[in-house]
Specification:
Rossmann fold; 2 domains; 20% strand; alpha+beta; 27 strands; 636 residues
Length: 636
């Protein structure tokens, strides 16, 4: 890392010198990004004052991203001679880092526009250029006008309707911020306390005695024993050196050891009390003492089942963020800490959206250290039960994040994300207006609103299934019906090669009938989820008792546990972890028990129905552990 920083410093110096000698050909500004209208709940209150401070960030385009499918197929397709020959972090850096020309041209242009060199700060990895500026200077640089906007909760920020970049450097720029975005953590003048809007599993309090439930109750309440019986998961795991499984939680969500002990003592026969995850605290790693499902529910659910299914294999908890929630941690903070190649200026985080550290030491529970960058190794499998609406960030930001998951896949990491719990509508039941803005919470109109990162083609998206009402272990599963599992088609990401045949078959045999006024029905975009796993009424220890939680938050850690167990078997056999899964899953549909009953809902519709083959309600279907293991063990 130090070598890279020195190299960047020397290159920046060279760029300054060359700009003074040769200059950069001038060219007219070309519109780079624009928006249509003002999002709901925001009001324009004035023009921005010229002297308002603003920190501009120019995200430089990375190289070779157009070859992502080629690279990923090489290491993850079951017929590839190089299956499992994953990349090193240095190979990732050298392949995708922006070109020297991108940094040089951008810096030279800024200098020629009158920006003093001391206010220009390139990142260590050449991915960003930061400029400490003012509204007046930013308007000149970007040929735009900034205004001041306020939302219904009192947040005040600056934004513009569009911005332009000289044609000569536009090819080097992904996006500039703050510009057109409306996010409570972007370009903010006055902040409010922002709480994470994310998937939260539904729960109900249940009266359960101290004895484990019988398997004939698995259609009403789910336990580890039920999951082993439904999918054929082994009764006992094994601790294998080199194997690892990671669960991600974001503060204030916090597990409680007493609750885990209560669960282990009743619903497992092999996990001793006080068995705890390895806690890798990221940028604070805050663990709250608060009680209740709002704080303990998600984390307890994930860890109860991840640990029960893979024990005695250790589980690592990536606990992200501190006790300051006005700028909560995001997936980018996680990526920084587990992937040194991702870290850029200030740990790689963007102040428009991500948690920026150090925080104010006067705030209790604030993290006052430097942002973590490459601090921890990534586990072989990582399960994340959090997401956001695909439209909640600009396409440039979301695409950039998705491509980082691709890079982790190239390095051999399997990433699981829950597909969502509100069907074809977004979190909180928000759909999408014609102008691209979200509809009000719980609305019954608008376009379908896919969830991200579930819609990213470089992760495995896990949807929700269930035994039929009053069904038995061994019955064919149906689409989860106590809630509406997330699924559909991306509005942003193109159709990956591995999914092309499945999507073509779906449309040719089971076209859902909606037109483009409802969703992007081009047949050329990423569909999700990839698989479906049990997700209803998972008994979970909480506040000294038990509650039953429902949602795809339960499905992702369960499927992640299956892959972790198989990784252990592969490592024992002298092989490596499986890495990115989707190439194998779509090449081997025999792994799955097809789900053909049930549907989703949302935006005033029944969403998508389960049909034969892949569909947006249940993906490829529910996995059979035995066949999944046989296929993955047969690979190099």
């Amino acid at each position: 890392m130090m070598r890279m920083m020195i190299g960047t410093s020397l290159f920046f110096t060279a760029a300054l010198c060359s700009s003074l000698v040769f200059g950069l050909p001038t060219s007219e500004h070309v519109v780079h990004e624009k928006r249509d209208g003002i999002p709901e709940h925001w009001t324009k209150i004035s023009e921005a004052s010229d002297d308002t401070p603003i920190d501009l960030r120019f995200a430089l385009k990375q190289r070779n991203l157009e070859r992502a499918q080629e690279y990923m197929r090489e290491v993850s397709h079951p017929e590839s001679e190089n299956f499992g020959r994953f990349w090193t972090p240095q190979e990732v850096i050298s392949t995708f880092a922006p070109s020297e020309e991108a940094l040089s041209d951008t810096v030279q242009w800024l200098l020629q526009m009158g920006v003093a060199s001391k206010r220009i700060a390139p990142s260590a990895g050449r991915n960003w250029v930061k400029v400490k500026s003012t509204v007046a200077e930013a308007e000149k640089l970007l040929d735009t006008t900034y205004s001041v906007y306020q939302d219904d909760e009192g947040t005040i920020l600056v934004a513009c309707e569009s911005y332009a970049i000289p044609a000569g450097i536009r090819q080097h720029i992904d996006f500039v911020s703050p510009t057109i975005q409306f996010d409570p953590r972007m370009g903010t003048i006055t902040k409010r306390n922002a709480k994470r809007e994310a998937m939260r599993p539904k729960f109900k309090t249940v009266n359960i005695d101290s004895e484990p439930l019988e398997l004939d109750s698995c259609s009403q309440l789910t336990t580890p024993a039920c999951l082993r019986a439904i999918y054929g998961i082994p009764e006992e795991g094994e601790a294998v050196e080199g194997n690892s499984y990671g669960i991600v939680e974001f503060a204030p969500q916090s597990y409680n050891q007493v609750d885990l002990n209560g669960f282990f003592s009743v619903y497992t026969s092999n996990v001793p009390n006080d068995t705890a995850p390895i806690v890798n605290g990221i940028d604070g790693g805050y663990l709250s003492d608060d009680t209740g499902s709002g704080t303990r529910g998600e984390s307890n659910l994930d860890l109860c089942y991840a640990m029960a299914l893979v024990h005695p294999q250790n589980v690592t908890l990536y606990q992200v963020g501190d006790a300051t929630f006005s700028n909560p941690a995001t997936n980018n903070n996680l990526l920084d800490a587990i992937d040194g190649s991702y870290c850029t200026f200030e740990g790689g985080d963007n102040p428009d959206w991500d948690g920026i550290y150090p925080h104010d030491a006067s705030v209790p529970g604030a993290y006052t250290g430097e942002p973590m960058c490459g601090t921890y190794n990534a586990t072989n499998v990582i399960s994340v039960s959090y997401g956001r609406n695909e439209i909640d960030r600009p396409p440039s930001y979301t695409t950039r994040e998705c491509m980082e998951y691709m890079k982790l896949g190239l390095m051999g990491v399997t990433l699981m994300f829950s597909s969502g719990d509100t069907g074809v509508s977004g979190i909180s039941g928000r759909c999408v207006k014609d102008n691209g803005a979200p509809t009000p919470v719980g609305s019954s109109y608008g376009k379908f609103n896919p969830l991200f990162p579930a819609s990213c083609p470089w992760i495995t998206s896990v949807g929700g299934s269930a035994l039929p009402v009053n069904g038995s272990v061994g019955d064919r599963e149906v689409v989860a019906y106590q809630f509406s599992p997330g699924g559909g088609f991306s509005n942003l990401f193109p159709l990956p090669d591995y999914q092309a045949a499945a999507i073509a078959s779906y449309y040719s045999e089971h076209d859902p009938g909606y037109n483009s006024s409802r969703y992007k029905n081009s047949q050329a975009v990423r569909g999700f989820p990839d698989v479906a796993v049990a997700s209803q009424d998972f008994i979970t220890g909480i506040d000294g008792g038990f509650q039953a939680f429902t949602g795809t938050s339960a499905a992702a850690p369960t499927f992640g546990a299956m892959i972790t167990l198989i990784n252990g078997e592969r490592i024992k056999a002298g092989k490596g972890p499986v890495g990115f899964l989707n190439e194998v899953l779509y090449a081997h549909p025999e792994i799955f028990n097809d789900i053909i009953e049930g549907h989703q809902s949302g935006c005033g519709t029944e969403g998508f129905h389960a049909v034969e083959g892949w569909d947006p309600a249940s993906g490829l279907g529910a996995p059979s552990y035995g066949i999944l293991k046989a296929v993955l063990m047969s690979l190099p």
